[in-house]
Specification:
The protein is mainly α. The chain contains 14 helices and two strands, in the order αααααααααββααααα. The protein has helices at about 5-25, 30-35, 40-45, 55-70, 80-90, 105-115, 120-135, 140-145, 185-195, 220-230, 240-255, 260-265, 280-290, 295-310; strands at about 205-210, 215. It has a two-stranded antiparallel sheet with strand order 1-2. A hairpin with a 5-residue loop joins strand 1 (about 205-210) and strand 2 (about 215). Helix 1 crosses helix 4 (about 55-70). The chain starts with 6 loop residues before the first helix and ends with a helix.
């Protein structure tokens, strides 16, 4: 059960357990009365954080507490009181606690990278390959890059020979060519050619160094390089997560059916809908084209397939 959750999730769950125990200690509640946690205690814990933290933080904390109960075979008593308290907290969250929606990486961002990166430099070639993959395949950067030189794990990260990356079962990342300067297939082929001396056992986006060796592409190096280029061009800096959002947005603007975009990004729930940006542009594309008889059947089929998958 512990192996089933990611490292970052471990941290979030741990934070929830810590806060809950601190709350119980501050009220001098006996340990045997804290776990399994009764409904009223969970609700009062949540209420104590009203107007202090965001709703997502609370949901993460509760998920950690719930997971602890499952791990130890303890009954979960979070019912009506907890649901009501959680709902109430969401209505009184301070605006300062709400995280603004991340903007998408746009085609302008992508074309700027193609234009200003030094594509005779092995590092910049790898950067472009990552950007094109993250954007057009709607990837999380965590699927492509590592946090540090010592954190590479071939069972969880993509090696040079592109072994499957979803735990033991694996998954496929689809690389489709597009008529665009940031064409994913071209960027990957250039990367593999420019960094041909990198061994198959290395991370997929590792690059050759000036010292005749190779180095893995680290998350911070990649994001910093992209933002450096965008700053030169007068574009706003963005986070790594914005590539996946931008890719999904661009595919939808190109009239790619929503269920196909969800499959490309390997979304397994309606959380995919939260990645839609520029809905004022996306919705008219589908609505206007749907008035064509030839499009009605395709749109209906696409949306029905999406609804069936995530109902």
């Amino acid at each position: 059960m512990l192996i089933s959750i990611e490292v970052k999730t471990h941290e979030n769950y741990g934070a929830g357990l810590l806060r809950f125990h601190q709350y119980c200690d501050s009220r001098r509640i006996l340990e045997q009365l804290c776990m399994p946690a009764p409904d009223h205690l969970l609700a009062s814990f949540i209420a104590s954080w009203a107007r202090k933290v965001a709703s997502l933080t609370i949901h993460n904390w509760l998920a950690g507490i719930h997971f602890w109960h499952n791990l130890h075979g303890a009954p979960w008593h979070g019912r009506v009181l907890l649901r009501t308290a959680t709902s109430g907290l969401a209505k009184v969250v301070l605006p300062s606690s709400k995280r603004p929606c991340r903007p998408p990486v746009t085609l302008e961002h992508m074309h700027t990278l193609v234009r200003l990166l030094d594509l005779s430099n092995a590092f910049d070639v790898a950067v472009l390959a990552v950007t094109s993959t993250a954007f057009w395949s709607c990837c999380r950067l965590g699927e492509l890059l590592i946090d540090s030189a010592n954190s590479f794990d071939s069972t969880r990260h993509a090696p040079r020979n592109w072994t499957k990356t979803t735990h033991g079962e694996g998954t496929n990342l689809i690389a489709s060519g597009v008529e665009d300067p940031s064409n994913l297939v071209s960027a990957i082929m250039h990367h593999l050619s420019a960094n041909a001396s990198v061994p198959d056992s290395a991370p997929f986006f590792a690059f050759e160094t000036d010292q005749g060796s190779w180095a893995p592409m680290i998350w911070t190096w990649f994001v910093n390089r992209c933002n450096e280029i965008w700053k030169i061009a007068g574009l706003p800096g963005l986070s790594g997560h914005c590539f996946r959002i931008g890719g999904a947005t661009e595919l939808l603007l190109r009239e790619t059916p929503p269920d196909v975009v969800a499959m490309q990004g390997r979304w397994k729930s309606r959380a995919f809908l939260e990645y839609w940006r520029k809905t004022d542009l996306i919705l008219p594309v589908f609505i206007t084209s749907s008035f064509s008889d030839s499009r009605i059947a395709m749109i209906n089929s696409s949306m029905n397939a999406f609804s069936r998958r995530y109902q």
